[in-house]
Fold:
Amino acid sequence: MSKQKLLDQVRTEIRLRNYSIRTEQAYVLWIKRYVIFHHKTHPLQLGPPHVKKFLTDLALKHNVAAATQNQALNALIFLYREVLNKDPGKFDDFVRAKPGRHLPVVLSRDEVTNILSHLLGRYKLMAGLIYGSGMRLMECVRLRVKDIDFEYHTITVRDGKGHKDRVTMLPQSFVKLLQLHLKKVQILHQQDLLDGFGAVFIPYALEKKYPNAGREWIWQYVFPANHLSRDPRSGHQRRHHISESILQKNLRLAVRKAHITKPASCHTLRHSFATHLLESGYDIRTIQELLGHTNVRTTMIYTHVLRQGAMAVSSPADMARPKPLISEALQESN
Structure:
């Protein structure tokens, strides 16, 4: 069995399970690295000691993050269990990368306003929605028309992290800008239909069940790409969503123009959303639901960056000078 056939099998099994194309690319990369690490030996001839050696090498030699090592581990378990139908065995004693504990970067409200003032058009809208709703970057990029409810002022995040749906708020400050933007997108979609295109990617098996759904307005991306492109899986010519890198570049430029000295990114806007809600007195459980966190402990990290609240401590440099001791007071009176 050749390496190419093995990777094709991996891709087939991933697509049967409706994993995202990013997961597919990551898993294929890790499996390829695993095979190359063991001098292109087929994985069927390898076992738990070889998996352990590869994962340990990632931690010791390449100094990867814990999340990166976990992704490699998941890819190899998927390879053995789902593709090769083989029990990967136990290899719990490999050297694990140490998870870092980093406080999130948070912007003040004035800093957010300053950054947004240096963004234009759809980039300002996208950044505003991320900050105003707490969405992740890719959740914003993948938004579809049907996910926005102007009546109830909500945004439904579909298939978010952990393959979970959730509902968050639609910030009122950006409603008019969003409505104007959607009118432009609808004109673009109508032109695509006239040109014989207009279909977008439809998740899961819906495309087979509803062949024309991809051409319907409600399924269109809120932030479409400027040009048509070829779907890497189906080969169809479609208009995909905008690349997330474009927003990232524009935001970095806006941060520089605003003279912000913090290493702010799109995810910083999400951090700021959570922190500002906590500062306003909203319940931690509510914020957990809005962010889509599985565990409230993940949300609790934002309590460590609050400048005010029950756990706030004032610096001794900012405290009033304490009253002198009695002995000192007597000396001063004499």
User: Anything to note?
Assistant: DSSP finds 14 helices and five strands in the chain.
